[in-house]
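User: Hello! I'm new to structural biology and keep hearing that structure can be predicted from sequence alone. Could you demonstrate with ANTAR domain-containing protein? Please show me the input and the output so I can see what each looks like.

Assistant: Of course. The first part below is the input, the amino acid sequence of ANTAR domain-containing protein. The second part is the output, the predicted structure written as tokens.
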Amino acid sequence: MAASEFPDLPRFPAGFELAEALTVASQQLHETPTRHNTLRTAVRLAVHLMPGAEHAGISEIERGNKFRTLAWTDDVVRSAEARHGGREPHRHWDELWHSPVVRMTDSENDDGWDVLSALGLRSALSLRLRADRRRLTVLTAYARKPGAFDEDATRIGRLFTAHVSIALESATVREQLTEAMHTRDLIGQATGILMERQGIDAAAAFESLVRASQRENVKLRDLARRIVGAHNST
């Protein structure tokens, strides 16, 4: 990845430079309009900021061995993580249920990481972004050099992922509020259509909408969207 992608950020910052770089990175993360864009920006920033990192991905691991990649810097990461999708998560990822950081020093000397070594990825640093009882969200940085991630890289990685976690939470809340407003508008439009069609007041129209939703076992917003769509197509 070209260093010029983030011209305001020093490559692999340290000292006072690090504090300034994390501030700029945090601003860029919070400027993303959606959770998906936050994830994509985060993996690119990880490669720029974390010493030793050449590639990065963000994955979601669910109990029951479900694994999917949410964002990646390139096809090498996508291929590496996709190949784990049909397998049980590696024990190193299992450790992230109990530890915020896991390092893999050399894939060629570590049983179970043959997928990485086959792609020329020798080192990995996994950092937990979010966790609950059912699901982990993990940022993993990769390098072609063995032993690429030392204590400094881990420290910077943990500082960076703290900013990513906050930005993700903020983006999630924004999306939920946007969806709530959109849902409210849809339900309002559907209620208005029923009032006009059936000659009833707003309360009766809304009650009719709720009953239909329960009867058809359809979410209220989906039923409202269907009514509005049918009305607009006539």
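User: So the tokens describe the shape?

Assistant: Right, they're a compact way of writing down the 3D structure. Reading them back into a model, for example: The CA atoms of residues 29 and 50 lie 16 Å apart.
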